[in-house]
Amino acid sequence: MNSAGLPDVSPYDALLVLSFGGPEKPDDVVPFLENVTRGRGIPRERLAQVGEHYFLFGGKSPINDQNRALIAALEKDFADHGIDLPVYFGNRNWDPYLADTLAEMTAAGVRRAAVFTTSAYSSWSSCRQYRENLADAVAEVPGAPVLDRLRQYYNHPGFLEPAVDAVLASLAELPGGGDAARLVFVTHSIPTEMNDTSGSEDPAGQPRPAYVTQHRSAVDEVARRVREATGRAHRHDLVYCSRSGAPSTPWLEPDVNDHLEELATDGVAQVVMVPIGFVSDHMEVIYDLDTEAMATASRLGIQAVRAATAGVDERFVAMVRELVLERAAAERGESPERPAVGSMPAGPDRCGVGCCPNPKGARPALCGADS
Ligand SMILES: CC1=C(CCC(=O)O)c2cc3nc(cc4[nH]c(cc5[nH]c(cc1n2)c(C)c5CCC(=O)O)c(CCC(=O)O)c4C)C(CCC(=O)O)=C3C
Ligand SMILES: [Fe+2]
């Protein structure tokens, strides 16, 4: 609390929500995909396919609107809690681009901002690449504010509690209350090599392989709480979607569709798909799960329901506020509580040395113990 009895956000004078970005209209789709895949060696056929996913939804990704809704909810939550902190929005791959937002923040006199990324887990794609984006943007904008990326939140109760309720709601939608339903937790596949190097060897960092270890912690905790609530032990699995890259490069498996085939063979009749790797219903969720995996389930005669993502659940929104206040207190030299549930402790405020290296070679990155 500050002298007026309100939560103390110093040393911060802004919050930046940093996300992936997505196309807003059909003409944006190809330039967006070019932004995403610049220098990444994604085969042309894969890009054409992913372009079709966007065109199926009118050439517009839901992700930017979802982030604007999250920001509106945060502004309201801050106001309700007497917190006077402007919230800015910047993306890696589409308008509003991070560097433009940083220029706007600089012009508005922002000196130091907390940064919330819309990605809960550690890997190059979901963690360090955002830190590289921050370094690039700061290099482009003279006088840019100091930026503190908030810790990974895959094990924060504000992220997992909405997931538990979402699973319970989905079970209730299945005939018979889903009493024999399998819980199929789904996240974004990444190259196995990117998983192996996710996290760091620095004892103060996230233990390797952070990406899968963090997911297992989150998944087991949600399944445990569902069991507590229903009194039934639902079997559960962690599987993957949205594989990309060259077919010769190994990525995390099994793919959700292959897994459903296997479940059907084993006689599983009901499934709840839980998009535990994603914070909102963006393209991976509405295409890869709701369209493709749902069609697979229906072809196999499996009754399937997809659980909701955190979105603008008030606990998730409150989590962002709590993370800002926690980090602000830590930067003031206090020792705030660091809520964490599951098998892993709260992650560090700064990524460990060598955390989640870029597979194409080292680049400058902010917000690490070594930056
Ligand atoms: C771990 C992870 C997350 C989750 C964490 C986070 O949220 O950050 C994520 C999120 C997202 N990924 C997204 C879109 C895309 N990702 C691609 C490609 C890739 N993703 C990767 C990983 C991840 N991606 C990887 C290793 C590649 C291969 C290329 C490379 O090595 O860099 C491609 C290129 C085409 C393709 O190859 O699929 C697209 C279009 C969107 C926007 C959705 C929308 O528009 O609604 C979102 C939120
Ligand atoms: Fe992706």
TrEMBL record:
Family that this chain belongs to: Belongs to the ferrochelatase family.
UniProt pathway annotation: Porphyrin-containing compound metabolism; protoheme biosynthesis
Pfam families associated with the record: Ferrochelatase
A GO BP entry: heme biosynthetic process
Residues annotated as binding Fe(2+): 188, 284
Reaction(s) catalysed by this chain's protein: Fe-coproporphyrin III + 2 H(+) = coproporphyrin III + Fe(2+)
GO molecular function, one term: ferrochelatase activity
NCBIfam families with a match to the protein in the record: hemH (TIGR00109), PRK00035.2-1 (NF000689)
Documented EC number(s): 4.99.1.9
Keyword terms, alphabetized: Cytoplasm, Heme biosynthesis, Iron, Lyase, Metal-binding, Porphyrin biosynthesis
Compartment(s): Cytoplasm
Protein known as: Coproporphyrin III ferrochelatase
Functional note: Involved in coproporphyrin-dependent heme b biosynthesis. Catalyzes the insertion of ferrous iron into coproporphyrin III to form Fe-coproporphyrin III.
List of residues binding Fe-coproporphyrin III: 61, 130
High-level lineage: Bacteria, Bacillati, Actinomycetota, Actinomycetes, Propionibacteriales
Gene Ontology CC: cytoplasm
Class of the enzyme per the UniProt entry, highest EC level: lyase
